[in-house]
Amino acid sequence: MKMKKANILSCVAISAVVLSGMGITNVKASDDAAVSIQKVAEKSLNPEVQNGGKVSDDFQDVSKNNLGYASKFHILAKEATLNAHTNGNLAVGSLFGNVNFGTNITDEKLLDKDISYVQEVKNMSESSFVSSNDHRTNKVVFGEVNDVELGKDNTSPLVNETPINHLLNNEIFQDKDSNEYLDFDQEFAKLENKSAGLVSSNSKTITNADFPNQNQRVIDLSDFEADANNQIVINLDPEVLNASTPLTISGLSADKGGTSIIINVDTKGQNPYAMNSQIKLRFNNGEENPIERPNQETEYFDDNHLLWNFYDSSNANKQFDGVIEMNNTFQGSVLAPDATINIHHNLDGNIVAEQVNVVGGETHRWDLQDNNNIVTVPEEPGEPDENNEGKELVDPGFTIDPTPTSPEPNPNPENPGGNVDEEDDDEDDQEIIINGGSEGDLDPNGKEVDISNPNGSDEKTLSSINEGSGLVPLTNAAQSNDTSSASGLSRLPQAGATSGILMTVAGMVMLGLGIVFKKIKS
């Protein structure tokens, strides 16, 4: 009898140990799950932050543009490092934003919304973006990996603990439920195909030998004919942009539907490729004296029909995957989807590359326009028509004065013009407004009040900048080292499965005990 009782006690003890061990394991898994869920909620499931949606929600039709969605962003890159003022919006995978960026508001007031997407913020200046006013709003989408907190009690919103002083709560969005505002891998695959497709063996290849005067190198577009797609395609030998003398593109149309100019630059295996030529643009309205465009901040984009496509004929896929050094002022949109671009001087246009580093000078947003099937590139001025009473003919494609309005200097003495590229010639550099020319109205306490958005945060504190340098000191550049994500939860034990195992074991133990007790009684 004592042996039977001992056996019973042994069974009970073993069962207790088994159950307690499983219970400890389950508690541990539950704790891990709770911690992971909490971290994911903190980083990507903040219900107060709006869902950013898809890039197609904001830009419905980009099929007519050679850059697609990239044409809507000043910089599109998998990684961008900003060390000099960047006047434009971004769509980047990883951002090292050591200075401010955003499309400044000029006297033209033509842009009603500035949209940016930053998938992962490594660091970002507090003065990033341009404050909204009655002419402009913002939409900024952050990726799920960022910790986004909306401002409360008149404080600024936070991204990875960095205050973002120029955004209102209702201007901040985030990827939700594993949705990405823009799929970078998919977009860059399209851009690689576009770059390779733009390369034409039928187009004229220009070398330095084609310029009679090396100090006055001019590509006159009236010497070329547009193709069926209303595009002029020109191939450049690598030596052309290697040269340190200016290169002028003459005969561009300033009309929104102007002829697209594609210049394919063959690097022919040079790595790094040195772009040493100052690029000058002349717009011809049918008169003898064309209008030359300077590097500038602007909201007028209708006159950008120039795309520079950097490729490498020595690669089977035609992609240039090296480094491009922009060693002089440049104008026109740049397509180099597999390259790294280091910018040392002012550059106006879209910048599309795997990696973009704004080292010096400034960059200015200037969106590439859609293709149009009406040829508008003017020919050289001809003789007056006898029925035109001796008046000179004017190119009908030219309908808007392309001379940009220089932005007014910021009246705030603490925020003077930004840095000016010291090596720019011919008075190409303009006065720069660092934190957006038109700030919102201020209340008596010096807080900015948003007029156009009464439902958002009423006030936001303006941040100061490093006076006169054009650079903003890096402050509160908190980096998120935690890489936990919602996808990691799929590897955790499920609560239902653990409970089922426990119930099964408990049932078998009880069944065993019942059999033992039955034998004892018998």
From TrEMBL:
<dbReference type="Pfam" id="PF20597">
    <property type="entry name" value="pAdhesive_15"/>
</dbReference>
<keyword id="KW-0812">Transmembrane</keyword>
<dbReference type="InterPro" id="IPR026588">
    <property type="entry name" value="Choice_anch_A"/>
</dbReference>
<feature type="compositionally biased region" description="Pro residues">
    <location>
        <begin position="404"/>
        <end position="414"/>
    </location>
</feature>
<keyword id="KW-1133">Transmembrane helix</keyword>
<keyword id="KW-0732">Signal</keyword>
<feature type="region of interest" description="Disordered">
    <location>
        <begin position="369"/>
        <end position="470"/>
    </location>
</feature>
<feature type="compositionally biased region" description="Acidic residues">
    <location>
        <begin position="420"/>
        <end position="431"/>
    </location>
</feature>
<keyword id="KW-0472">Membrane</keyword>
<feature type="signal peptide">
    <location>
        <begin position="1"/>
        <end position="29"/>
    </location>
</feature>
<feature type="compositionally biased region" description="Polar residues">
    <location>
        <begin position="452"/>
        <end position="467"/>
    </location>
</feature>
<feature type="transmembrane region" description="Helical">
    <location>
        <begin position="495"/>
        <end position="517"/>
    </location>
</feature>
<protein>
    <submittedName>
        <fullName>LPXTG cell wall anchor domain-containing protein</fullName>
    </submittedName>
</protein>
<feature type="domain" description="Choice-of-anchor A">
    <location>
        <begin position="67"/>
        <end position="364"/>
    </location>
</feature>
